[in-house]
Amino acid sequence: MKKDKKRKLMTNNSGVVGIVATVLLIGLIITFVGIVQTVHVPNWLKQKEAHHMNDVQTQFTQLKYTIDVLSLLEEHVSIANYITLGTEELPVLNTGRTYDTLEILSNNFQITFSNATDSFSLTTSGILYSSKNSHFVDQIICLEAGALILSQTPSSILLGQPLFSITNYTNVSLWLFDIAGLEGKSFVSGYGTYILSNEFISRTTHRITDVTSINISTDYPEAWGDFFNSSAFVNSGLTYSMTLGNQTLHIEYSISLGNFDIEVIDIHSQLAIWRY
Amino acid sequence: MKTKNADHLRTQNHALIELSATLLLLGLTVIVFVFITYMLFSAPQASPGPVTTITGRLVDNNLVLEHMGGEPISLNATIGILFGSIQLQIQAYDYVDSETKKDGLWGFGEQVVYPMYTHPEYVEVSQIEVMIINSEPESAIMFCSVLIDPLSDLSVTVSVDPESPQMGTPVIFTITIHNNGNINVSGIKLRFQLPSGFTFVEYSAESGSYDNSTGIWQNIAMIQPGGSAVLTVTAIVGQVIPDELTQLLILLDGSGSIRKADLDFIRNGFVTAIGNASIFPRGGFIEVTVVVFGGNAGGITCKVVLSPTVVTNETIDFVLSTLNNISTMPGFAATSCGLLLGCDTVTASSIFAPENRHVVMLISDGKASLLCNIDGDYYADTGGGMDPVTAAVVARDYLIDEFGMNPMDDEIDAVAVHVTDFSTYTWFRDEIVWPQPGYTAPPFRIDLPLHGFVCNATEWSDFPFIFKSIITNVLNRITLTADIVQASVTDPKVVNNIDGVLIIPQ
Asked: Which of A89, A84, A85 lies closest to A132 in space, CA to CA?
């Protein structure tokens, strides 16, 4: 009887060793997975989202190029550009998908050129991409009146300037784009690659002479300040003062600009889904 | 007994095998775990620090490092700058503005600006290597090479004393070069050529030498930021023969408001001024064209009274007799039509070239009231949404483009006769004359670039005197310019590298 008990205990002990080994193994795996999930996955996702932001910047650069070329050619054709919203989830871990928004804005930008007796005012619409990142900082990329702007609230920088030229030191020609969206096809939100079809509609020239001040109403005054502070303006010898407000930019020229030719380009854009 | 021993031995063996297997499994697991841990935690990571985009560039001899997106980094970040044999290590905090310092972070759109001009030797190398190291966690943020393109900002000013010198008397020109930039500039050469009729007397300069035959001032000592170099040149004023052809276009408003008596004043003014050889040279350097405009809708609106004619002793009689027989036109002031016909007539001249000097003189007693579109004919148009005043400005711009006018030589001036409405006067001054901004003359300005002017004649009877003074000013003034032709450092702001004065010998 005593011997039977002893044998049973020895058999049980061998069972305990297996359980302990399994528990240890599971513990190790859980620890490993936990460390990966809490330390490395966020870093990977941050990198992935940052990379996606760069991709969208490149796509917007192509979009600006398309619209610039359309305005120069003045051909009534529709050219498509692709914008990718959101990032894919990580393989296996199945986490990290994000969803962004793309919108054709309405009357988001206003510029007024004034001389001593007259003024010319223009209101335009633009295209705005807004990220909804989980780990990387959120960014806004906006194509506004021909300027490509990158914003991280509350500031903004200029990625691409509008078409312009300065001749005879003070004669300025500036091309401003008014991008109108098609009703019902001017907003998308989600994940996937979307088509943005752009068509040239018209080009009209407005001239105002002896411009002494420019007033801009925009969400991105810093970026427009960068543009009007660019070396082309500075090296042309123009002297001016610039006042930056919360959503305004005011430029006062001490010597009036000779002629200010404003080329207004009307573009129609619409959004469509290419794939999910 | 034997069976019991065998059982015991089997049980012991079983335990040993299980123990060995477990230990082996544990050992393997630990090895795999250690390996994976090493791979994940110890192997170099691509970018364990903040994900940030920073770009480097040189702006006005400052190294500008700008945060172009991504996460902010600490202002304790270290920046390594390497150029030539010089290695610098700076803290971002020391080179940002006070606004950036508030939150202690180098955030989106904020800049670190390091003054490279404090190391004058940096202009000797071709590029700067820059490295940014984040402080917490310590990681490399950026490596980049910035190409060196040192920039200067030189400017030149010229003044003359006296401003209206007598023929045959000395005049002193003072030419000053300023260094408005932030780095030293050497190797400057400046050109200041005296006109051929002037007699060089002497020069004085703080440094360098002036050669009056070539007009080059060179070997100027290095000018430090904020510094300047001065040259004075003394010369005797003489008769100057123009070195370029001048195409003079006179546009006369001959519309219905011009009376017979007014026409006499106009004829007299033309003949008196153009017939005076002392103010209107006859050496074959001036071509004159006269166009009269005025008409009614659907009819002829303008005509060429005097085709492009180079004024010489041989042609002067023909010119004067033609001008003495000018007649008016009926109807309204078709200013745009006159501008277009005048433009096309002058550009069709055999001697036309954009390099010639072009002077346009508009004589009118009011705003445009009839219009011509740029459609190849000079018949009055209905407008198509454009009013006559705007059409005149459009035609004026067309003329500027076709002539290839430049503000150092060419001009459009106006004589506003019997104008009582201030808005008409400002229209001439602010929208017609060129270069802008226009001004009221006399007095005539002597600075360059030129500015178009408007002369007011209260009555047509004042016209002969005013026309003569304009011709005297426009055709007899002498332009002297000084321009910087060379420097050791690129100057992108060329607009202030040239200056000049106009003098009208009495």
From this structure: A85
Residues B333, B337, B340, B346: is their CA dihedral positive or negative?
Answer: negative
Cβ-defined contact of A256 to B436 (cutoff 8 Å): yes
Return the SS3 of A161: coil
Tell whether the model's pLDDT for residue B326 goes beyond 60.
yes
Inter-residue contact B262 to B460 (CB < 8 Å): yes
> Which residues share a beta bridge with B79?
B90, B132
Q: How far apart are CA B438 and CA B445, in angstroms?
A: 11
For residue B472, give both structure tokens: 């005297």
- Chain B residues with beta carbon closer than 8 angstroms to that of A136: 51, 70-71
pLDDT tens, residue by residue, B366-408: 888 888 888 888 888 876 667 888 889 889 989 998 998 888 8
Please, what are the domains in chain B? 21-148 (2.60.40), 154-240+479-503 (2.60.40.1530), 246-475 (3.40.50.410)
Tens place of pLDDT per residue across chain A (276 aa):
555 655 555 555 556 777 777 888 888 888 888 877 777 888 888 889 999 999 999 999 999 999 999 999 888 888 999 999 998 888 777 777 889 999 999 889 999 998 877 889 999 999 999 999 988 999 999 999 999 999 998 899 999 999 988 876 667 889 999 999 887 778 888 888 899 999 999 999 888 877 889 999 999 999 999 998 887 777 777 778 899 998 999 999 877 676 788 999 999 998 876 554
Predicted local distance difference test score (pLDDT) of residue A276:
43
pLDDT tens across A234-259, in order?
777 777 889 999 899 999 987 767 67
Q: Suggest the residue from A5, A16, A17 to mutate for an interface test with chain B (most B CBs closer than 10 A).
A: A17
Residues 13-72, chain B, touching A (beta carbon < 8 A)? 14-15, 18-19, 22, 25-26, 29-30, 33, 36-37, 40, 45-48, 51, 66, 68-71
Contact A117 B426 (CB under 8 A): yes
Mean pLDDT of B39-67: 77
Residue B407: CB partners within 8 Å, gap ≥ 6? A168, A169, B435, B449, B450
How large is the ipTM?
A: 0.82
Contact in structure between B416 and B428 (CB atoms under 8 Å) = yes
CA–CA min distance A43, chain B (Å): 8
Whose CA is closest to A132, among A188, A215, A216?
Answer: A188
Q: Measured between alpha carbons, how far is residue B62 from residues B112, B122, B364 in Å? A: 10, 11, 54
Angstrom distance (rounded) from CA A179 to CA A182: 10
The nearest alpha carbon in chain B to A254 belongs to B437
Percent share of chain B, pLDDT over 90: 39
Mark yes or no for CB contact B109/A157 under 8 Å: yes
The answer to whether B226 and B153 are in contact (CB under 8 A) is no
Angle at the Cα of A226 from the Cα atoms of B93 and A103, rounded to 5 degrees: 110
